[in-house]
Write a structure and sequence with these properties.
212 residues, alpha+beta, Glutaredoxin, Glutathione S-transferase Yfyf (Class Pi), Chain A, domain 2, 2 domains, binds glutathione
């Protein structure tokens, strides 16, 4: 398998954790989101992912899957162990609710292209853009995730699920942009627990071949 991604992309980070947890071998194909005007916009990459976003997973037969959550659910179906969604339907719905809060409610409005549009076409200052980012990470939001998760080492239960795969990259990004997260003890406990798991550690942005 080949993962088209970018070291700092939180969506690609989610998929790297899933691949590592399931011990699936894969090759990385870096797509630099800043250099050359953003390599995601190239014709070659758009042919793989019409949204011009990372990640894209290319399977051994050449099939392409886009959208990190769709990729992770595909991997979970193909390689069920360890399961990233609980068998219990009610618990699985709670796991998905946290994952979707991050992937659908926080991430899209804080994506690179949105921040660039605010700064460029909307002529906002860097300070205004930073305030937008922090506001939507928290209110959009991690404050809700803090209330939704259980308070143990993982968001739910005694092992990582799709919820943790979304939370850890979001916390990484929050730290990178200086967003206050010290008042989220349950999220921070999950962050500490996941940091000791090699699959999470190996997926960290600074450990990737394209980290610059
Ligand atoms: N919902 C998509 C989001 C993908 C996404 O927005 N990726 C970002 C990096 S985290 C990206 O490629 N941004 C490029 C841009 O904004 O131009 C997913 O989960 O895969």
């Amino acid at each position: 398998m080949k993962l088209y991604g970018y070291f700092r992309s939180s969506a690609a980070y989610r998929v790297r954790i899933a691949l590592n947890l399931k011990a699936i071998a894969y090759e990385q194909a870096p797509v630099h989101l800043i250099r050359n005007g953003g390599e995601q916009h190239s014709l070659a990459y758009r042919a793989r992912n019409p949204q011009a976003l990372v990640p894209t997973l290319e399977l051994d037969d050449g099939a392409l899957i886009t959208q990190s959550l769709a990729i992770i659910e595909y991997l979970d179906a193909k390689e069920p162990s360890p399961a990233l969604l609980p068998a219990d339907a009610k618990l699985a719905a709670r796991v998905r609710a946290v994952a979707l809060t991050i992937a659908c409610d926080i991430h899209p409005i804080n994506n690179l292209r949105v921040l660039a549009y605010l700064k460029g076409s909307m002529a906002q200052t860097q300070d205004a853009v930073d305030r937008w980012y922090s506001h939507w990470v928290r209110e959009g939001g991690l404050l809700a995730v803090e209330a939704m998760i259980e308070g143990g080492d993982f968001c739910f239960g005694d092992g990582p699920t799709l919820a943790d795969l979304c939370l850890i990259p979001q916390l990484y990004n929050a730290r990178r942009f200086g967003v206050e997260i010290d008042d989220l003890p349950k999220c921070l406990r999950v962050e500490t627990a996941c940091a000791s798991i090699p699959a999470f550690e190996a997926a960290r942005p600074e450990r990737q071949p394209d980290a610059a």
